[in-house]
Amino acid sequence: MYSSKLDIVDVLNPWFGRVAVAIVTCLVVTCLIVPANGDEIEMQFRMQATTGDGQPLALVDGVPSVALGDTFWLEGLITDTRADAGGVFAGYVDVSYDKQLVSVDRESLEYGDEYPNAHTAPGLIFATEGILDEIGGMAGIDAPIDPAAEYLMFRVEMSADAIGKVDFISDAADITPRNDIVLRFDTAPLPTDRVSYQGLAVQIVPEPTAFVMMSLGVLLFANGLRRSLR
Asked: If you compute the radius of gyration of the chain from its CA atoms, what whole number of angstroms results?
């Protein structure tokens, strides 16, 4: 809260000005100055790659990795990052990826418990290979227990079809106003420049050969035998 006096800079009638100044200079106005949000990030969307039981993929050189021919789950997670977080009420994104490296199991799509409503039709989400289009959902009426926590928005199973590094790139959804991002306690949709859209890289590596697996088995057996003889 800030206080300031009103001053008359100029008036046409000098006599009126003298009277007005005598009255106005005794008037103190208290006003609330609300700083503009500027470029403040108010919501974060990120992705992670997990195994079927929800464990993060093993890292190779700091990058989540999966063997050629295996499957993994791509998860989309959202967070209200405001200082006075109330939770994300509705969130939708576009996710693009290299269709030559991975493919998606359309029947596997699941949504997080916090976002059971207003899902985009699967026919649109999977209409174009290499894109999860307008994917997302809307929360229920009840606010989340922890408004500032990170919540699962969706998960879908992917297959590793070719060796290489696949980049999953997230971006703002295009259909407005239906798929706008809305934060709880805000009356207007969240501008996309206040959303942190994060990407994810997954490395697809060659499947271990039978020779490598046999060598590893022999090594483990020899190591166990050596310990038993001590």
From this structure: 28
For 50, counting Cβ atoms within 10 Å of its Cβ (0-12 exposed, 13-18 middle, 19+ buried), the class is middle
Domain boundaries, the chain: 2-31, 43-208
Bridge partners of 80, per DSSP, are 43
Q: State pTM to two decimals.
A: 0.75
Cα separation, 61 vs 114, in Å, equals 34
> CB within 8 A of 55, min separation 6: which ones?
none
pLDDT in tens, 132-185: 999 999 999 999 999 999 999 999 999 999 999 999 999 999 999 999 999 999
The pair of three-digit structure tokens given for residue 199, joined into one six-digit string: 């990407």
Cis status, amide bond into 35, omega within 30 of 0:
no
What is the DSSP pairing of strand 63-67 with strand 59-60?
Answer: antiparallel
Q: Contact, 126 vs 188, CB < 8 A?
A: no
Q: Where are the alpha helices (DSSP H) in the chain?
A: 14-24, 122-125, 210-229
First-to-final CA distance of the chain: 77
The CATH architecture assigned to 43-208 reads: Sandwich (2.60)
